[in-house]
Amino acid sequence: MTTLNHYHYKRLQEFCSSVFVKAGVEKEQADIVAASLVQADLRGVDSHGVVRTAIYLKRVEQKMINPKAKIRIEKEDESTALIDGCNHFGAVVGDKALKLAMKKAKANGVGMVGVKNSNHFGTGAFYALRGLKEDLVTIVMSNASQTMPPTGGIKPFIGTNPLAVGIPCGECEPFLLDMATSVVARGKIIVAAQKGEAIPHGWAIDKNGKSTTNAEEALKGSVLPLGGPKGYGISMFIDIFSGVLTGAGFGKYVNNMYENWKAPQNVGHFFITIDVNKFMDIKTFKHRMDLYIRDIKTEPKAEDVEEIFIPGEMESRRSEQRKKNGINLSQNVQRELTNIGMKYGVSLKDALMLNHNTEGKGV
Amino acid sequence: MTTLNHYHYKRLQEFCSSVFVKAGVEKEQADIVAASLVQADLRGVDSHGVVRTAIYLKRVEQKMINPKAKIRIEKEDESTALIDGCNHFGAVVGDKALKLAMKKAKANGVGMVGVKNSNHFGTGAFYALRGLKEDLVTIVMSNASQTMPPTGGIKPFIGTNPLAVGIPCGECEPFLLDMATSVVARGKIIVAAQKGEAIPHGWAIDKNGKSTTNAEEALKGSVLPLGGPKGYGISMFIDIFSGVLTGAGFGKYVNNMYENWKAPQNVGHFFITIDVNKFMDIKTFKHRMDLYIRDIKTEPKAEDVEEIFIPGEMESRRSEQRKKNGINLSQNVQRELTNIGMKYGVSLKDALMLNHNTEGKGV
Hints:
2 copies of one chain form a homodimer.
Chain A: E1 6-7, H1 9-22, H2 27-43, H3 53-61, E2 72-76, E3 80-84, H4 90-108, E4 110-118, H5 125-133, E5 136-142, E6 163-167, E7 175-179, H6 186-195, E8 204-205, H7 215-220, E9 222-223, H8 229-244, E10 267-275, H9 282-297, H10 313-325, E11 327-328, H11 331-344
Parallel strand pairs in A: 3-4
Antiparallel strand pairs in A: 1-11, 2-3, 4-10, 5-6, 5-10, 6-7, 8-9
Helix pairs in contact in A: 1-2, 2-4, 2-10
């Protein structure tokens, strides 16, 4: 039975890409967006997975994303560049910015590329992972529409602006931190509300700015930044790098992807890439990283803990499992994607795992 | 009466500098270390203030810091450099690294300078504030000796590795985030233990890795990273940038300043400086920063909140107040500094505010 809702990642990616192509996106660019979504599902970040296909398509259909745009490099120097995304897909703009940043790091040791006029770009890990393949240290930031109050405020003002950092290792799994700057994902509060469960104090405030354990009240209020004023500060500097410094929106000038149908999002991103060799031979560095990670993983563990994990390690393992066993989609997501497939003449069923036990073996 | 424990910041700085000079430090370098300590007191970060004079001196006396060292640039390219601090004072090494990073940013848009073989460098704000004076965006990181467990661990493994970010503004107070990666400063737990008070769950674990509200037990255990696995990840990447990438110590190879008298600390730092003009005209950028900050400060406030603050704003106001009214030192710190002064032939009394109400006026 499990095979009936398990999808093969490559064919699921083909499905999404085909739908985007039918909606007017160039094949190569559709592939990038689809890869970004499916990779999130593989890594267990389902909130950023193929569940977003519908909203991405709707924004194309409503002309809130322009898949025909010609992305421009507006300003460029040896180690720096500013890119105008011209309202293309975030993942396509991000892909171009990352490639430019990587090229600069390889040539000059450092690449810093800011991006304006972009859209939701998927997970930061999507970019940091590609930096890792090139042995580069990669920092990725993006701003997002308003969900969290400043410390002392009661209304959403800053986004849960994500920060991702990828650092290559030798034999160990690379370090890959990818985090939102909120205490918890808003999705967790939605799930609690659906189940009628309470949430812990510290996750959110109600619409009057009071701490609440009522998930329904929390959804009418704001999710809180991690660590109070510290998370507020981190979220703010990500907003400044991604938005203020690039010419993108920031604070209330970043439009909500789900709610605003009058204007593009104007999201901003910021990519930093570093060639390790400018500081230390990469081989030596990787040995040192392996030593560091092995040191941590052999630390004494708390009673109920089986293993100490490095950031990104759990997601990497989950990705390997899901490549083998398929990506499990909820009934809702399957229904939504099936409808999209019907509209654009692409069959979701073709992406189903044919045989849960054998199909993954060759992957 | 208050004047008897209030010290004039300039004369307190002269006192500290004079003591360091008598202990064998060159005047110019002694001034840097003293400025770093007194600035922390001015900003209200008393834990990093002149209270550290005693331990710094002891490490010089015990040959754990070498104030005669010649700091070396070990590796250098247009935008990057690696500095060997040769075990000089952290503030002196950090000063040199920051200056080099700022020079590179002005010439090429970006400066990245890693540092190894250094010592405790004071607050990150000390460096970020100087970047601000030059209109540069500045990121400062340092690792520190072990105080926090990895997520799932029970023993201190990583430091409360600080991160500071300075971003220039126009008319508004600049953005200046300077934070440790722990939930709270260990100092707060020490204070609770002294008063016999309980601490909230989530601040610390006992020596068996269990959450505790007992401050005494917490001090035998570990302080926790902010936001659980997120703070653990942030602290780790700061350790990697500052330690693994530079050739400094990292994790358990950073020695404790108070406990290890057999080897230098081998702390590492990492400085990133950015010229805004490579992305956007600095004047336009400052206008956008002012808009951003005014937007935040006029957000609706929670009931018990008088004002929404930007990171660094409270510290800046406190600094202005203390410049006027003097720095209030505890009896313990006064006693310690008096003894140091007697040993080196420098009078602490000369640094007292003569008249609390009038002396600050001209400052």
